[in-house]
Automatic annotation (TrEMBL):
Domain of life: Bacteria
Protein name: Uncharacterized protein
Protein's organism: Stieleria marina
Length: 116
């Protein structure tokens, strides 16, 4: 099989940290190492997967951080129609004044068309 395209697939974890932690703490470094190790282990036998060992931090308590919770499913989301989207959170947007992930927005739309 010849692979012609490449895609980056990302995942993330949300971690509660002490207010004094700034990304350089031994606890956060340990969590990051465990996440990298888990990815490496999960794909060690698949030559078509190349773990990047890249880590990125998004501080959810920054004033310009674009995140919230979907009004229907309560998952952490980021509004792709606004600046500073966090790409490792679920895509969301405002629908009729309510923050909804795309999945819940679709479910609402389908439910509304079934009722019509």
């Amino acid at each position: 099989m010849t692979l012609e395209n490449k895609a980056v697939i990302s995942t993330a974890v949300v971690v509660d940290v002490d207010a004094s932690e700034t990304g350089n703490s031994s606890r956060m470094d340990s969590i990051a190492r465990r996440l990298r190790d888990a990815v490496e282990s999960a794909f060690s036998r698949d030559a078509s997967v190349d773990p990047t060992e890249c880590l990125a931090w998004d501080w959810l308590n920054d004033s310009d951080t674009n995140f919230g919770r979907c009004a229907d499913c309560n998952r952490l989301v980021s509004n792709y129609e606004q600046p500073h989207q966090i790409r490792t959170l679920i895509d969301a947007r405002i629908v009729d004044g309510t923050l909804l992930c795309d999945e819940c927005a679709y479910s609402r739309r389908e439910g509304a068309s079934a009722d019509a």
